[in-house]
Amino acid sequence: MRGWTLQRTTEATAPAPDLATRFNGALRRVPVWAVYGLGVLPAVWLFWQAATNTLGIDPVREIEHRLGELGLQFIVGGLVVTPLRRIAGLNLLRFRRAIGLIAFFYVLAHLAAWLVLDMGMLWGQVAADIWKRPYITMGMAGFLMLLPLALTSNNWSIRKLGGARWRLLHKLVYPAALAGAVHYLWLVKAWPVEPFLYLGGIIALLAIRVWFARGR
Amino acid sequence: MTYRFKTPLTWADVTPKPAFLNRRQLMAGAAALMATPALARLTYTPSGYSTDEAPNTFEEITGYNNFYEFGTGKEDPKNNSGAFTTDPWAVQIDGLVERPGSYDLADILGGVALEERIYRLRCVEAWSMVVPWIGFQLSTLLDRVGVQPGAKFVAFETVTRPEEMPGQRRAILDWPYREGLRIDEAMNPLTILATGLYGEEMPKQNGAPIRLVVPWKYGFKSIKSIVRISLTEGEPPATWKQMQGSEYGFYANVNPEVDHPRWSQASERRVGAGLFAGRVPTQMFNGYGDEVAGLYAGMDLAKNY
């Protein structure tokens, strides 16, 4: 850490080998599967804790909430890629598909935890809740928007749809991210900080895009 | 079914259930003694009002609850209540009573016989537990201080001590926490002031040293760490009702047919039942309808939620 800071200050005075360029060069050697590998680690850890009964007094709630929060975190991670490239020059584009698919995996697991562990597959109440409870409606809407994105996150779909249409379709991640954050904020009692942080972060990341789209 | 290994042990060698339960209790007791030397065994008698359902464990009851004075997380009360002091403790009893005054806790407890009341507890968040409270009927205290004929409600107030209660340093709720009951609800034999659980003095995180327990209402009505009881003519303010009146009413009776605006109250998850236990149907008045349904005869419970 100290070395990094030192390097950075020296580079600030002598900007010859750009830090971002060197960072991008190093990233090129990181295989994409490594991102998938890192992405499933929290799931493995959660599964291990569930199996060893170390998730606290209410493991159902813990599993459900952690999976949902991980989904939101990876969605935010995916939204960070473009601003990071445009502002800092860091190119993480190669990893974005992996980040997005991992996000979808956690959202799907979160939904499954709700259906099976929390609701105990009471399908009647599940259907009524999706219809009647705004925060659940919102969560389901977010999931349904992510579904076509996950299904078309492959080269074949990009070729089939054509780049322009594929990019347009994948803009669905913006409303999906907002739906996820509102879903979180809507279910809490009183006003804890975390859901506001996610919603604020997502709004900021979308605002940056609007800013760039307007040519600043 | 084939067994892969043989053992000389037979069923006769299995520790009998009373013995291991007893051992577990001793260990829990020893651990509690080491952790908080102030906790003492209480003397109490069993009660006919207790459910025969199996209580949640001491760890579950004391490690998972809402007590926003110590933070909004379910583990916050246990983790953040260490600095809370509950001795000395006095309760101000005032309003429409014959003998108002500041009553020392020892004085209050001097006049009552403690009972164990094993009650179901249903949280408004749709989870539930079974808790072996130790306490006495609120009516005995109210009779002792003398309720004036004009009194129609009982108001309760939690202690305000931001220096000991970190949650109170933020305006999460409008402190102090307040709750209230109609006088007939307060006099109902099911309504108790609890001073302990699992045979021991009330743990700090569960509302020490004295708290209300109203088992047919959502948990937030059962106000904790009480410092003031007032008899009033009009309906007293209640914290959650003031905060969000469309979601939390004054009555807050457990009712599977009247949903919280944001979630269903038709079923509940019993904490500690296991990963795949699913949900159980929520009972009207949390299953205490025989004792309390009469209090609400002729009332529209969808309006008076």
| Terminal CA distance of chain B | 55 Å
Number of spatially distinct domains of chain B: 1
CA-CA gap between termini of chain A: 34 Å
Instruction: Give the strand tally of chain A.
Output: 0
Which range does the strand content of chain B fall in? 15-25%
Summarize this entry quickly:
Chain A has 216 residues and is mainly alpha-helical.
Question: Can you walk through the features of this model?
Answer:
Chain B: Belongs to the MsrP family. Chain B: Its cofactor is Mo-molybdopterin. The complex is a heterodimer of chains A (216) and B (305). Chain A is mostly helical and 216 residues long. Chain A has one domain. Chain A contains 11 helices and no strands. In chain A, helix 3 packs antiparallel against helix 4. Chain A is globular, with a radius of gyration of 20 Å. Mean pLDDT of chain A is 91; it is low at 1-11. Chain B has a single domain, classed as Sulfite Oxidase, Chain A, domain 2 (Alpha-Beta Complex), CATH 3.90.420. Helix content of chain B is 19%, strand content 22%. The longest helix of chain B is centred in the N-terminal third of the chain and has 19 residues, at 17-35. The interface between A and B is medium-sized, with 28 and 27 residues.
